[in-house]
């Protein structure tokens, strides 16, 4: 179970980073288009 838990934690962390980066890119585009 520990391996599965670690895998889920890694996948979750990657998903959070992708969402955060996407949000930052959208904000930058919104600022530059203003």
Give your account of this protein's structure.
The protein has 34 residues and is mainly α. 94% of the residues lie in helices and 0% in strands. It is built from one helix and no strands. The chain has one helix at residues 2-33. The longest helix has 32 residues, at 2-33. It is rod-shaped.
Short structural summary:
By secondary structure, the chain is mainly alpha-helical. The chain is built from one helix and no strands.
Give the secondary structure arrangement, pairings included.
Elements: H1 2-33
Keywords: Membrane, Transmembrane, Transmembrane helix
Transmembrane segments: 7-31
Q: Low-confidence parts lasting 5 or more residues at pLDDT below 50?
A: none
Structural category is: mainly alpha
Distance between the termini: 49 Å
| N-to-C SSE string, H for helix and E for strand | H
Strand content: under 5%
What is the helix fraction of residues, given as a range?
Answer: over 70%
According to DSSP, the number of beta strands is 0
Number of helices: 1
The averaged pLDDT comes out at 96
Q: Could you tell me the radius of gyration in angstroms?
A: 15 Å
Largest β sheet strand count, sense and barrel closure: none
Transmembrane segments: 7-31
Keywords: Membrane, Transmembrane, Transmembrane helix
């Amino acid at each position: 179970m520990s391996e599965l838990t670690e895998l889920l934690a890694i996948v979750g962390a990657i998903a959070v980073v992708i969402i955060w980066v996407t949000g930052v890119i959208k904000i930058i585009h919104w600022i530059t288009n203003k």
